[in-house]
Amino acid sequence: MKLKGWKDVIPGAVCTEAGSALKFKTGSWRASRPKWIEDNCIQCLFCWIYCPDMAVNVKDGKMTGFNYDYCKGCGICALECPGKKGNKAIVMEEEGK
Amino acid sequence: MARVVAVTGNEAVAEALRQVNPDVSSAYPITPATDIMQRFTGFVSNGKVKTEMILVESEHSAMSGCIGASAAGGRVMTATSSQGLALMWEELFIASGTRLPIVMALVNRALSAPLNIHGDHSDGMGARDCGWIQLWSENAQDAYDNTIQAFRIAEHMDLRLPAMVCLDGFIISHSIERIEYIEDDKVKNFVGEFKNLNPLLDLEHPVSYGPLILPDYYMEYRKAHAEVMSKVAGVVLDVAKDFEKISGRKYGLFETYRLDDAEIGLVILNSAAGTSKDVIDAFREKGIKAGLLKPRLYRPFPYEEVGNALKHLKAVCVLDRADAFGASYGPLFMDIASSLYTCKEKPVLINKIYGLGGRDYLPEHAGLVLDELAGIAKTGKVKTFKEYIGVRE
After folding, report:
1. Radius of gyration for the alpha carbons in chain B, expressed in angstroms and rounded
2. How distant is the Cα of A97 from the closest Cα of chain B, in angstroms?
3. Percent of chain A, pLDDT > 90?
4. Could you say which of A77, B55, B257, B276 would form a disulfide bridge with A47 (CB–CB 3.0 to 4.6 Å)?
5. Of B219, B221, B228, the CB nearest to A13
């Protein structure tokens, strides 16, 4: 992407394009990644609600996995996940192991 | 017909704000600015304005509230002094960097410590490079007129910059003067309907404010800000022309007083300029060619125009009501010296620090300085380039 010059930037650094965060992939910041264990998932979608970004993929009302382009590895999904009978459907794993 | 009234500087600013009738104000009291917002909240309570008044817990929050309301899409104003402005420090840069046309009355007061509530320019000078427009006012009439004009300047579509209107604490804010109020409808028409630019509350066009800008773009935004500052002087002059039509009063980037044929001159801000003009008249009567320059648009500073207005003089004293510790000279002196830097012929410049913490600036002080300048003009010899005046040894 060609970078804009000072004459072309929007005054006040206002973002006038809705959803433009899509263009800015932040997954490389991650130090640990969420792993989805489908067998333990009750499809409560707490992970989707709590995710501060848009790293939880949902199709037809169901969790289908993670979008690692945007997941920064905060672990909120894993913390909130109620799992099934005490077994978490999301666990955090260290990156690069 | 204009109304002739006897009011304090604060009362005059509050009246201007009533006439402008901003959408939102967010403020916190601090001496000597308190009186402005106290009067204005009275207007709110009595239904004289439709302003949404937000009473917050600190000046940090006051400016934050103004930023939010301005980004949301409202005409916004506030007022503060001294420590209050200091507590707004980070917000000042956010308001200007986000290009939000907030108008703020700054009733100039000394900074603590030692604690002092009186007139002094240390607060405004500390914030001179924060990207805001600064208009300085000699008296209550200036403060009233500048407040009204500040909305037009700040909100101009070519600028969209916050603006501070500075007036001297107590000397102007709390002293009663004769001034003229413009009719309500003329002020209303003059400032016009507030025009929005990318308001947060426009749900059809969603926007985000305050993104993280990394090294790949930060400099471009700063360069754009520097560039927009260069357009301010032109807008200030255009607005002044329109203002003259409704008020009969002329405003420029600065005021010159008996300067055209002067050999010696004073450069001085705000209320002390009035005292100085009387003394200049006395010196003229003695046959000494003395003049004065009083900056009005202090940020962005009109370097070229000021340099051209002063370059023909033989000796000039810049009087600062604030010191810049460790910078050798006072802040106004440094700007005047910069204005003359590129001129081939220029006057000898000296700097006096006066009136700190509300210390009186008396006609005798101006007289002593003018005598010294007359000596310098004659002999070319300077005793000292910078000194405090009106201070005990």
Report:
1. 21
2. 30
3. 87
4. A77
5. B221
Q: CA–CA distance from B353 to each of A2, B118, B322, B391 (Å)?
A: 52, 16, 7, 9
Kindly report, residue by residue over B146-201, the tens digit of the pLDDT. Answer: 999 999 999 999 999 999 999 999 999 999 999 999 999 999 999 999 999 999 99
Task: Indicate the fold that domain B3-247 takes in CATH.
Answer: Rossmann fold (3.40.50)
Q: Which residue has the tokens 């700097």?
A: B351
User: pTM for this one?
Assistant: 0.93
Residues of chain B whose C-beta is under 8 A from some C-beta in A? Answer: 97-100, 160, 197-198, 205-211, 213, 216-217, 219-221, 223-224, 227-228
Chain A positions in Cβ-Cβ contact with residue B220 (cut-off 8 Å): 4-6, 9
Domains in chain A, CATH or no CATH each: 25-94 (3.30.70.20)
Instruction: Tell me whether the CATH fold assigned to B3-247 matches the one assigned to B254-388.
Output: yes
Residue-range domain boundaries for chain B: 3-247, 254-388
Beta-strand ranges (E) seen in B85-132 are 103-108
Q: How far apart are CA B98 and CA B243, in angstroms?
A: 28
- Which band of pLDDT confidence, cut at 50, 70 and 90, is reported for residue A1? confident
ipTM of the complex: 0.89
Give the minimum alpha-carbon distance from B218 to chain A in angstroms, rounded to a whole number: 9
CA distances to A18, A69, B265, B303 from B143, rounded to whole Å, are 42, 55, 24, 23
Supply B82's token pair.
């001294």
Q: Is the pLDDT of residue B1 over 80?
A: no
Residue A15 to residue B211, Cβ atoms within 8 A: yes
Using pLDDT thresholds of 50, 70 and 90, give the confidence band for residue B314: very high
- Choose among B97, B207, B220: nearest Cβ to A4: B220
- Under DSSP, the state recorded for B208 is B
Fold of B254-388: Rossmann fold (3.40.50)
Instruction: Give the containing element (helix H, strand E) for A91.
Output: strand A90-94
